Each structure stands twice: as structure tokens, then as C-alpha cells.
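Sanity check

After download, print the first record. It should look like this:
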Amino acid sequence: MHPSDKDALDESLSPQERKALEAWQVSAPPEGQIDAVLDQFDQETISAAVGEPIRLHQRTPVFAYLSLVLMAVMLFQQVGFAWPHTGELSTKKRFSQKLSPSTQAVLEPEAQLEWETSLFGELSVFQKNGSVFYRVEPGSQVKISTEAGTILVKGTCFKVETQKMTPVKSSLLGAAAGADRQHPA
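Expected C-alpha cells:
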């Protein structure tokens, strides 16, 4: 109660009413009554503003789910969701290809490669054959695999050359020290 309201109340009371008011002892409310009153007040306030009762406990999960969906959309935009997740390329002439927002590849003739971008923007390339020049933006990384091995490269330019290995037919006719090679006649 505001002090000016109390003064106005004191002036309107008779001495007998003032004495009864001062003697009145306020007892504690029953347990749970305050929460029930506050819950009712909140529902009445919401109903007056919206025009119909709203069950907050039923709507809260909907807002939580919508928030999660919004955060997921924002994450996909940050990692370049529009980029293809997989790709394969082989070329007969020199060709330039953007593999991710931060990685460019220049394939020389006869080069072959496959690539995959994860949902978090991690790029993995399998180079099957040929010569490929890569440009990786600073702060980014790419994993390049060949039949010979795998490298992890961060923010630089580099070239990888591979060749298809073909089996060679040969026979060993003489293996002893000093043995002459025999030629069929």
C-alpha cells in the first residue's frame, strides 16, 4: 500500500475502527494457496489478452522444438548446406572445380577424383588418378586420400600426382649368379 493511501485510510477511520485495525493479526495463508492464486491470476491475464485460455505447459514444447529447428537451419547456412555432399569427376582436358566453399581443385587431363562434404563442412577427397592442384583457404582443411596414402592439409596450395599402376608380365628364367639369360630361338 502506498503511504499516501494509508494516510487517506487513517483519516476516514473512526477511533474505534482504527483500534480494531491495529489489533487485527494477519494469519499465514494455507499451504499452496499463494501458488493457486498466482496461477489463477496468470491464466486470467493471458485469457484477457488473447481471448481464450492458453495452457502454457502444453505450448512450451512447441516453442522449444521450433527453436531447435531454427538453430539447425542457421547451422546449415553456416557450413554451406547448399554444396553437394558427394561428387565424382574425371576429365579429358584441364578443368577447375569448386569442391567446397573453401576448396578449389584444378584437374589436369586424365585426372579422376571423388569427394564428400560432411554436414559440418569437412571435405574428404579420394584422388584415383592424375594430377590435381588444390587451393585450400586459410582456416580450412581437406583430407586427400590416394591408393598410396592419406594427407590432411590446412589452408594452403598444393599438388597431388598419382598414376594407375598396371601389372607387368615378366618371367625370370635364370636367377643364379652369373647365369646367362636364355632367349628362345
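If your output differs, re-run the checksum step. Summary of this record's structure: The first strand starts at residue 86 and ends at 90.
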